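Section 5.1 Outputs to date
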Amino acid sequence: MQKFMVGAGLAGGPPAQRTPPPAPEVLEAFGRMQGNVNYFLAHGFKPISRYTPDVSTLKTGPARIIVGVGENTVGSLPHRSAVALAEHLGTAAVSFPGGHGGYSHNPAAFAEQLDEAFRGSHASQNP
């Protein structure tokens, strides 16, 4: 998994120790996800990497699409992909605190930004 993270631009070395440590329910979820890593890498990643969203349907659908990026992920594969999607949709990506899973590192700031994005009061910026 570390090789995958480095290849995606999400990590450059061993995982850093988080301060403060994640909540028990987050640790439990990470434990469940870890059990699925081999399956994901063997069967899930390839189809996901080949997926192309139907941008015209997304543009004309009833829902407003908000594309989010982690402020600490600039240059990574997920960040570049999200910014490209936002550009195709004719909007800007909204920057959220933290990294690819920023909600787990600073949930209060993430929730505040998410609330602003949903309310439309956030001045979207495309980092």
